[in-house]
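Please go through this protein, sequence plus structure tokens, and consider how the sequence yields the tokens. Keep your notes short.
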Amino acid sequence: MALEISQQIVDAILEQSRNEYPDECCGAILGPVGSDKPLRLKPMINAAHSPTFYEFDPKDLLALYREADDNDEEILVIYHSHTETEAFPSRTDIAYAGEPGAHYVLVSTRKQIAPATEFRSFRIVDGVVTEEEVSITE
């Protein structure tokens, strides 16, 4: 399994993670139903406004589902940043992973790796985390 994602989307997520630091950033990427092609980035507001936790505002999440439905899209990627730890799902991330079909992308902006960033993708199903390859396209 692999996540194929455009350089433009990767750059936008990394920029968002740096702009929202020291809080975690979050969002979703939508694509046509059944395609597994993440095409449309939807940055979200971290309702927790926290450097160690993220959550979508329930109203924003409902609007996102409606928008996806109206456009024959589905949420293919859920992403967020870790500000001081590696890009690997925390116990909290695993507990809150409610989309078994989604790719969970994590980026890390911790100072030890600056100016570089980690960009990793995982599947999280029934509490089991599996890292997958990321293929970045032009």
The chain is about 25% helix and 35% strand. The mean pLDDT is 93. The chain has one domain: 2-119. The helical segments are 7-20, 58-70, 91-96.
